[in-house]
Write a structure and sequence with these properties.
By secondary structure, the protein is mostly helical. The protein is 80% helix and 0% strand.
């Protein structure tokens, strides 16, 4: 079991301040890129003569590349340091975004989106792991910046992509170049003369990610962690993908606006979780979060159009700390080199579980939209309780053997 971390009383070191600055830039950029393709679909269709149904493959290739890139981080870290791996990934994202910006052909643009997605996945995994070492509070803080980027991105594309799709992606490429330079010049280097390795997480994380002699790993624990990541991303994506359809079928006047409230609630919840720091154990945090998701979904099921928006906002706010709490729990109890596989399972959940909701929609009707995340949240709560029990049991066994 992982206990709550006491509130911090010491000042931030230079290594940590640098890590936060680079993390803020990185996660804001992640939000811009991930939320930028959809609003650019009309401009892409006009410029390259593609129908809307075909233009959507750009985002699909980005997400597919991102899932593969997450897996590539582990093997890359067996040859390069975490700092060098992140720099390579930032340069890859730069090249992908420049290709998307200036591509003369549709096929080359798809290559750029795929390359950018690969680099995006590597960068996201590396920074998420680095901040997971600091705890769920800092991890929620930088993931909140991702939410800010996701909210800003559609506005940015709307303002800059009136004549061409290129300007917003060129701006993202400039930010990726700045990130690559920042990682190259500022990322904390290991200090082998002191016991605390620069008193920051970055160098220690690089060592731990590349350890070959890892402690014994329980397949049952890994399976439960994998299910937790898969189920959580399924909840988050399920709400985000189907809320507009749900409210439109209920007769809401501005269903898109109600969906945006969900993303704003998710972002606000991450900032609130960051402010609370690490005062609560993973079990407490995840129990609150899944319970809130179940309650919010129940309000959507039973409350009709009048109460459903409140249920959606409640769900978005409550699930906000789940990802960071799970990742911090995993990296502190399992070999961090296995974390990219957990993140990839999360991507699978985001792709598969919302699709199952779409299959249920013609059979069960609009109620399937809030019902699906409610059931998934209940399954997630069960997995969390079983995982807590497994980790507590594994902790007790060595103590009993020693006595």
């Amino acid at each position: 079991m992982t206990r709550p971390t006491p509130p911090r009383t010491t000042p931030f070191t230079r290594a940590e301040l640098v890590l936060y600055a680079l993390g803020f830039l990185a996660f804001f950029l992640f939000g811009l890129v991930q939320a930028g393709y959809g609003p650019a679909f009309p401009a892409l269709g006009r410029e390259y003569g593609q129908p809307v149904t075909v233009v959507g493959v750009v985002a699909s290739l980005h997400f597919a590349g991102s899932a593969v890139g997450t897996l590539l981080l582990g093997p890359l870290l067996t040859r390069l340091s975490l700092r060098s791996s992140l720099m390579v990934a930032a340069l890859g994202l730069l090249m992908g975004l420049l290709t998307v910006t200036f591509s003369p052909t549709w096929g080359l643009l798809l290559v750029g989106a795929t390359l950018g997605g690969l680099a995006y996945g590597m960068l996201s995994a590396g920074f998420n792991l680095a901040f997971a070492e600091l705890g769920p509070g800092p991890s929620n803080l930088v993931n909140g910046l991702f939410g800010v980027g996701s909210v800003v991105s559609p506005i940015l594309v709307t303002l800059l992509a009136r004549g061409s799709h290129g300007p917003p992606f060129l701006l993202m490429a400039v930010m990726a170049a700045g990130l690559a330079v920042g990682v190259r010049l500022l990322w904390p280097k290991p200090d082998r003369t002191g016991p605390d390795l620069s008193k920051g997480p970055s160098s220690d994380l690089a060592d731990r990610l590349t350890q070959t002699a890892a402690p014994e790993v329980s397949k049952r624990v890994l399976t439960l962690f994998g299910l937790c990541f898969l189920l959580y991303v399924g909840i988050e994506a399920g709400y985000g993908n189907w809320a507009t359809t749900y409210f439109a079928r209920l007769g809401a006047g501005q269903p898109e606006l109600l969906t945006s409230f969900y993303w704003l609630a998710l972002t606000a919840g991450r900032f609130a979780s960051a402010a609370l720091g690490s005062r609560f154990s993973p079990l407490q945090t995840l129990s609150f979060a899944t319970g809130g998701a179940i309650l919010g979904s129940a309000v959507m099921v039973l409350g009709g159009l009048r109460l459903a928006p409140y249920g959606l906002v409640l769900s978005g706010f409550c699930i906000a700390p789940i990802f960071s709490a799970q990742l911090a729990w995993f990296t502190r109890s399992q070999p961090p080199r296995l974390a990219p596989y957990m993140l990839t399972l999360g991507s699978v959940g985001g792709a598969v579980l919302p699709a199952l909701t779409g299959l249920a929609l013609p059979r069960l009707g609009v109620i399937s939209v809030p019902l699906a995340p409610m059931l998934i949240a209940a399954l997630l709560m069960v997995c969390v309780l079983l995982l807590h029990r497994q980790l507590a049991t594994r902790r007790l066994v060595p103590e009993l053997t020693a006595s």
